[in-house]
Write a structure and sequence with these properties.
The protein is an alpha+beta fold. It has one domain. The protein is built from two helices and six strands. A hairpin with a 2-residue loop joins β2 and β3. This is Prepilin-type N-terminal cleavage/methylation domain-containing protein.
């Protein structure tokens, strides 16, 4: 009878403690790699979103500048200056002011704005101004810069 019980104990199906610990170690390593990759993907996705918002804002600034060129301050040939003070706001952009900084809040994120008007190139003798719209995400320094030539006067109006 004892031989039968001894044989039963040896033939029991199941896992040993070593096998369970090895499986837990493997599972832990796989989980660590998975969650690290997931975290990097989410962070990368957020970066792309901020960059797209910055690009959209800079394009919006340039579009508004082109459509409302009468709002552009006078700028002489050979000058380059920063523009977009609070009183120079553009339609469709709710520009906030904090000291010297101008910014827009989109989706709860702050994007600093800088608009530069440049007439230091020979092309500017033809009544053109280069408008440079630079938008920077406050925390991550993700930025977008777009440049467009804008005619200061309508064709035939004279410079």
């Amino acid at each position: 009878m004892q031989k039968k019980n001894a044989k039963k104990c040896r033939n029991q199906n199941g896992f040993t403690l070593i096998e369970i610990l090895a499986a837990l170690v493997i599972l832990s390593i796989v989980s660590l790699v998975f969650f690290q990759t997931l975290g990097q993907t989410l962070f990368s996705s957020e970066e792309v979103s901020h960059r797209q918002t910055a690009i959209h804002l800079s394009e919006s600034i340039l579009n508004q500048t082109g459509e409302n060129r009468e709002q552009l301050p006078p700028i002489s040939l050979g000058e380059r200056e920063t523009w977009l003070s609070p009183e120079d706001g553009l339609p469709g952009l709710d520009v906030q002011v904090e000291g010297e900084d101008r910014y827009v809040v989109r989706n709860g994120e702050r994007f600093d704005l800088e608009v530069v008007l440049d007439r230091t190139d020979e092309r500017h003798e033809e009544g053109l101004v280069t408008v440079i719209a630079r938008v920077v995400h406050e925390e991550e320094n993700r930025s977008a810069e777009n440049v467009r030539l804008v005619r200061l006067t309508e064709e035939g109006e004279g410079a």
